[in-house]
Design goal:
Elements (H helix, E strand, L loop, with lengths): L2 E12 L2 E12 L3 E5 L6 H9 L6 E6 L2 E2 L10 E4 L11 H11 L4 H14 L15 H13 L5 E5 L7 H18 L2 E6 L2 H7 L2 E6 L2 E6 L1 H6 L4 H7 L3 E3 L1 H6 L7 E3 L5 E16 L3 E8 L2 E8 L10 E5 L6 E2 L5
Parallel strand pairs: 3-8, 3-9, 6-7, 7-8
Antiparallel strand pairs: 1-2, 1-4, 4-5, 9-10, 11-12, 12-17, 13-14, 13-16, 14-15
The structure holds adenosine-5'-triphosphate.
The site of adenosine-5'-triphosphate has 12 residues, from strand 2 and helix 1.
């Protein structure tokens, strides 16, 4: 498979700050790739390295097989959608969308036609004469997307593009972005600190911490088989079982993770005490104390819910216990 973006041991240091440190990355052509991690972990710097706004202090970058070091942003077939959209307030929507083509010297008739088409793609046909100030946040987000798509980039970089939207609009845009990506077949590299967003949209996820990638894989892989406590903790609401608790449960003396939805209430099994009950609509989450460790148990809708303070017995399948290589 052709790589859309390839990093080999790429670093970007700012004086003593190792923003990106020895990163290997391989984004496949046509992939929806998410970079997920806490604030300051190096995601945006990686994105800026792909865009060409930053140059690596060490390592090698290729975009569709071509060496990228030293190539300026406008010579890369890459466009970025920024979190704040960066629209020009004094230009109307059509001119905003057509701006990149104008800079490239594309004639007016042709660039207006392309801008109209891009607005149709993001479901905003007929909005071209308005100014950014006359649109809602979600509509501005779509304009920013159209403005990037009009250049027909081979790689679209998205830096927390849904961060400014409310939850409902965010969820709607997540679905739309995903279908648009599928329809256009463009490689998307998406930066987010929202694990739900990364898992629901991406074909593959890279989890960042301290300037490095700590795990890469499919959303299912990352969710079910986190390599470390950091990933388990960051990516989902996993239960982390310390080595001594694992021993008392008859397991190995190692850290393990166990997903709340894999735990059932049963007539036999280790005893725990219900400490809290939260009704979530589609499920009920129990917090229980098992050997002085707090675990969450996700009960499906319709299941019988025990009272706070009640003793319960827990069961899970052996394959749902996931031992982690790394206790960090
Ligand atoms: P966020 O989600 O908050 O945007 P991030 O994971 O994208 O975080 P980066 O923006 O890549 O993180 O920053 C990584 C580290 O590099 C941070 O410690 C940041 O302060 C530092 N950094 C980034 N740009 C510069 C710069 N131009 N000069 C100095 N330090 C920088």
């Amino acid at each position: 498979m052709t790589s859309a973006v390839l990093f080999r041991k790429v670093s970007r240091h700012f004086g003593p700050v190792r923003a990106v440190d020895g990163v290997d990355l391989d984004v496949g052509a046509g992939e929806f790739f998410a970079m997920l991690g806490p604030s300051g972990s190096g995601k945006t710097t990686c994105l800026r390295l792909i865009a060409g706004f930053e140059q690596p202090t060490a390592g090698h970058i290729e975009i569709f097989g071509e060496r990228a070091e030293g190539v300026p942003p406008y010579r890369r077939n890459v466009n970025t959608v920024f979190q704040d959209y960066a629209l020009f307030p004094h230009l109307n929507i059509l001119d905003n969308v057509a701006y990149g083509l104008m800079v490239k010297g594309v004639g007016e008739v042709e660039r207006m036609k392309a801008a109209e088409q891009a607005l149709e793609m993001v479901k905003l046909p007929g909005y071209g004469r308005r100014r950014p100030g006359q649109l809602s946040g979600g509509q501005r987000q779509r304009v920013a997307l159209a403005r990037a798509l009009v250049n027909k980039p081979k790689v679209l970089l998205l830096d927390e593009p849904l961060g400014a939207l409310d939850l409902k609009l965010r969820e709607q845009m997540q679905e739309e972005l995903k279908s648009l990506q599928r329809a256009l077949g463009i490689t998307f590299v998406f930066v987010t600190h929202d694990q739900g967003e990364a898992l629901s949209m991406a074909d593959r996820v890279a989890v960042f911490n301290n300037g490095g990638i700590v795990q890469q894989g499919s959303p299912q892989d990352i969710y079910r088989r986190p390599k470390s406590r950091f990933v388990a903790d960051f990516v989902g609401s996993s239960n982390l079982l310390p080595p001594d608790v694992m021993v008392s449960l008859g397991g190995e003396r190692r850290w393990a993770s166990l997903r709340p939805e894999a735990v059932r209430l049963a007539s036999e099994g280790p005893e725990a005490l219900v400490e809290n009950v939260s009704f979530l609509g589609s499920a009920t989450r129990l917090a229980v104390d098992l050997h002085r460790t707090r675990l969450h148990v996700m009960l499906p809708a319709g299941a019988e819910v025990p009272a706070v303070g009640a003793p319960v017995r827990l069961a899970w399948s052996a394959e749902d216990i996931h031992y982690m290589d790394d206790a960090a």
